[in-house]
Amino acid sequence: MDWRVIVVLAPLAVAGGWAVYNIGKYAIAQAQAFLSKQA
Q1: CA-CA distance, 28 to 35, in Å (whole number)?
Q2: Cα–Cα dist 14/39, whole Å
Q3: Which parts of the sequence lie on the Lumenal side of the lipid bilayer (predicted)?
């Protein structure tokens, strides 16, 4: 594989992972708040 492909895709993968991490963190907090309100 060409190293230029890795150089281009690595920052995109890092940014995507960071976005998923942040969205997931808030989604889990919101789901826990919703479930605790239901109980």
Answers
A1: 10
A2: 38
A3: 1-4, 24-39
